[in-house]
Amino acid sequence: MAQEDIFKKLVAHCKEYGYVFPSSEVYDGLGAVYDYGQYGVELKNNIKRYWWDSMVLLHENVVGLDSAIFMHPTIWKASGHVDAFNDPLIDNKDSKKRYRADVLIEEHIAKYEEKVEKEVEKARKRFGDRFDEALFRQTNPQVTVHVEKKDALVARLAKALNDNDLVELRQIIVDNQIVCPVCGTCNWTEVRQFNLMFATEMGSTAEGASKIYLRPETAQGIFVNFLNVQKSGRMKIPFGIAQIGKAFRNEIVARQFIFRMREFEQMEMQFFVRPGSELEWFRRWREIRMTWHQALGFGAASYRFHDHEKLAHYANAATDIEYRFPFGFKEVEGIHSRTDFDLTRHQEFSGKRMQYFDPELNESYVPYVVETSIGVDRMFLQVISAAYREEATDTGDTRVVLKLPPALAPIKLAVLPLVKKDGLPEKAGEIVQRLRLDFRCQYDEKDSIGKRYRRQDAIGTPFCITVDHLSLEENTVTIRDRDTMSQERVAIDRLPVILKEKTDLKNLLEQVAVGFRHW
Ligand code: ATP
Hints:
Oligomer: single chain
CATH topology of the largest domain: BirA Bifunctional Protein, domain 2
Helix content: 40-55%
Bound molecules: adenosine-5'-triphosphate
Number of helices: 18
Largest sheet: 7 strands, mixed
Radius of gyration: 26 Å
CATH class of the largest domain: Alpha Beta
Strand content: 15-25%
Distance between the termini: 45 Å
């Protein structure tokens, strides 16, 4: 099935099974705003817990923060967002559709990459075991032509963005004959800058009200609290501050479900280090964050780093962790070495010192910062698109199953009496009572057992506990594994231990911890 069709099915599945609903649906929705349903909110909370614990539990020098969404408007002047948090937009005159000029070009670049991968796959099939991929990539004329064209385009785009050259951006689109994906024409307007911040007013009278912004990132709340946390927590450099919270961006194009939203949530960590040591820390965090993603078990081949050619004005190194979504490799997380830019600017604009006294060096300095920044919603989409499968079963039909990592699954187990009589529901009820304070459980007695298994597969419940007549005699149940569909008979008394072993978040955290045992 085409990847686009799979993505459409995934979106429909999220709605049908209570994961994600369009916001304000009864009023026909609100562009790029979504609500999380009964299972969605659980998955989202579990993702946040996984991130939070891997930051503040695994690192004694990383602490948390929860700063307000509203902040003093000068913060956004100092950070550069008022003047420079812009995206270049372009309209197609025929379809009247609006696009981000840089994204149109990036998608064109991705097409060259797809062509290369297709050639490689074709050759792999042709040559079988004798295939030398590295040699093929270096020498195959079709591949090298695509790579040359791609590299030239990447360099031209990076230069245009660095120079803020909007005329050149349009020219790149025209020269490469990039057409509107909706109407297929090349009838483009000029490229214009568009500021992404939402503004509102604070204060009750019109004259007294002042313009404030909904934060477009959570990071600035960390910067302006840097000294509060450092002093009150007696933190020594290097140390980090982690925060999870809402952010708002008036995105120009918001068409890929929860990939790009106007209201979304971020998980950000700013790590404060000695000047000069930032690139070493940047490398470490790059590895740690990739380990965190790969611990979920979706396969290393689905991830890659994308090192930035165009660095933001505040950064001296930056990379994205990209995941292979059904619509191609896309950014899930950014890791940036932000130098001392933000703290220095806040020092200038606020007139307050933003310095740290380093007792080992016996001197004060403005710390440098390495940031890791990931969208909760984008991570949610990553997890759910990796987990979504349509599988043929032995009985000849298909089952839809969400193969979520058990630690992230919204419901850990379902307790199902085989029939609705003979004392089985009561026995099942007792099991639920025993487990419900430790695990998110669901009790279900409606419909045939096969249908109930399918329902649990569709919401991603990793284990189904079935209570049958033998359960009454022997005090045992069967435990069915969602992924293999195999069943095992176990003593009811052992359930808490078995389930904890299989669903504990610790399983994931231990893998992440292995990655930096040498710290
Ligand atoms: P993009 O290039 O996709 O617009 P960005 O580089 O502007 O993203 P950052 O400012 O680095 O993104 O934000 C950090 C993370 O926040 C991103 O990696 C992404 O996971 C998430 N994020 C950013 N914008 C959105 C959005 N509009 N909707 C959902 N998540 C977002």
